[in-house]
Write a structure and sequence with these properties.
The protein contains 13 helices and nine strands. The protein is α/β, with parallel strands linked by helices and about 290 residues long. β1 and β2 form a beta hairpin. The longest helix is centred in the first third of the chain and has 16 residues.
Length: about 290
């Protein structure tokens, strides 16, 4: 029992630095950080902890060793092939998509299947030159899983999404940047430092409340009309204009000093502020 508990606690690591940046590391390098139920439980547990920790203002997600996450562990895939799929007790990747704080992916190596889903649900993606990306589903006889058929066309367009989804082909980091899957490509040894520096800038200079509401606005407005988006924007503008973050943002700008924004309020409710729930929050893995 103790050994199993130790394995779970080590499967994902969370390190919170004094600068407000937390690093979340998928830590099964012996299996290239392949996804399994143990890693899944620990990942969502620590992501939830980071979301509730006042010290954390931005999170960098990466993988230990040479891979980011190549998808579901092949040993597990072999065990479920040909059987009815049981999603009981599973947490939907929508939990990642709806995370209120900035989530930055540092893709250090192989990133495919469910690993690609998790990376694309991050807000900004850095990749090491040489990292490989693939949807993989069509090459395993699977459907487009975990909402990737909704997300990918919105990121890179319909034709490019269909190319990657129906072919399952592997692309490198430079092509991923060209397609819009990632926004930055670095040399391998510079990846984590670059992603962390970006997250550190957010933590130091951006309002946690503003970032959370802006994230919600972007996700909600994907399927909204311009008029709906404007109405939500007016509601959000009115709420934030009365809050302490706006006052601090103006004061620090005028006084030419670094801002001292308060932590993300525990009771901040972006859906209530904008008047519409985030689509990702309504996704039930048991009732898709």
């Amino acid at each position: 029992m103790t050994h199993a508990a130790d394995d779970e606690s080590r499967s994902v690591l969370l390190d919170v630095a004094d600068d407000g940046v937390a690093t979340l590391t998928l830590n099964r390098p012996d299996r290239h950080n392949a996804w399994n139920p143990v890693l899944e439980r620990r990942f969502y547990q620590l992501l939830d902890e980071a979301g509730r920790d006042d010290r954390v203002r931005a999170v960098v997600l990466t993988g230990a060793g040479r891979s980011f996450c190549p998808g579901v562990d092949s040993q597990r895939l072999d065990g479920i092939a040909g059987r009815a799929l049981d999603l009981t007790g599973r947490t939907s990747p929508a939990f990642t998509y709806a995370f209120c704080k900035p989530l930055i992916a540092a893709v250090n190596g192989a990133c495919a299947g469910l690993g690609l889903v998790q990376a694309l649900m991050c807000d900004v993606r850095f990749a090491a030159r040489g990292a490989k990306f693939a949807t993989s589903f069509s090459r395993r006889g699977l459907a487009g899983e975990y909402g990737l058929t909704w997300l990918l066309p919105r990121l890179i367009g319909t034709e490019r999404a269909l190319d990657l989804l129906i072919s399952g082909r592997t692309i490198d980091a430079d092509e991923a940047k060209e397609l819009g899957l990632v926004s930055r490509v670095t040399e391998p040894g510079e990846l984590l430092a670059a992603a962390t520096a970006y997250a550190r800038d957010l933590a130091a200079n951006c309002s946690p409340a503003s970032m959370a509401i802006i994230k919600h606005q972007v996700l909600t407005d994907l399927d909204a009309s311009y008029e709906q988006a404007m109405r939500r924007a007016y509601r959000a503008m009115a709420v934030l204009a009365e809050g302490p973050d706006f006052r601090e943002g103006i004061d620090s700008f005028i006084q030419k000093r670094p801002p001292k924004f308060p932590p993300l309020p525990a009771d901040l409710d972006p859906p209530a502020i904008t008047g519409t729930p985030t689509p990702a929050l309504t996704i039930d893995p048991m009732n898709p």
